[in-house]
Amino acid sequence: MASRDTSMESMEGIVRLLRASAALQEGHFALSSGLHSGHYLQCALFLMYPENAALAGSLLARKLSHLEPSLVVSPALGGIIIGHEVAKHLGVPFLFCERERGEMKLRRFPAPGPARYVIIEDVVTSGRSVLEVKKVMDSMEETRFLAAGCIADRSDGLFIEEKGLTSLVRFDFQNYNREECPLCREGIPLSEPGSRRLSSWDGGKV
Predict the structure, then answer these.
(1) Where are the alpha helices (DSSP H) in 91-127?
(2) What is the DSSP letter of 78?
(3) Domains parsed from the chain with CATH numbers
């Protein structure tokens, strides 16, 4: 039997895949958190390849399996593909929350009942989306938050309350408040690739 190629399962391997798919970008970006940065992770470009999504999902599931979650929850839009992959590899159901008029809600699913859940996102910067999903889930009866996980952590050491943030890669890119952004002062054109400004999502139609 041929041995499994594990070269892409390391942090360096995931970074290579992010670069190869053009998911790791340079320029001047307004992040979903409201911060500005010279780097942006467009994980949709990484996840457009099913083999990348399957690999990342299996690796995150492996890191979180010891917690024995019974449910995976993600924020739309970015967390949907990777969250579904993690749930598949854990063998548990998957739900996603989405914004309705700016407020995160569990719109398309019934309350899950008793559940030990993990929150999965593609990229975490401020952690706001993760905490919004946690607030929704914790408002329901008999739910228990276990941990959060993501493909890429660029939060500069963010922790979700007492639980650590599990990631496949971590980037320490410099982020700036809009008022202090040197890229703005240099007049570099600003891109806004994030989805938080979308007020609703319905099968991809806004």
Answers:
(1) none
(2) T
(3) 9-185 (3.40.50.2020)
Mean pLDDT of the chain, nearest integer: 87
Residue 161 is inside which H or E element, if any?
A: none
CA distance 117 to 115: 6
Torsion angle (degrees, nearest 10) of CA 76, 74, 16, 183:
50
pLDDT of residue 157: 65
Cα 28 → chain centroid: 21
Residue 169 burial by Cβ neighbours in a 10 Å radius (0-12, 13-18, 19+): buried
Q: What global pTM score does this model have?
A: 0.82
Give per-residue pLDDT as tens, 77-98.
Answer: 899 999 999 999 999 999 999 9
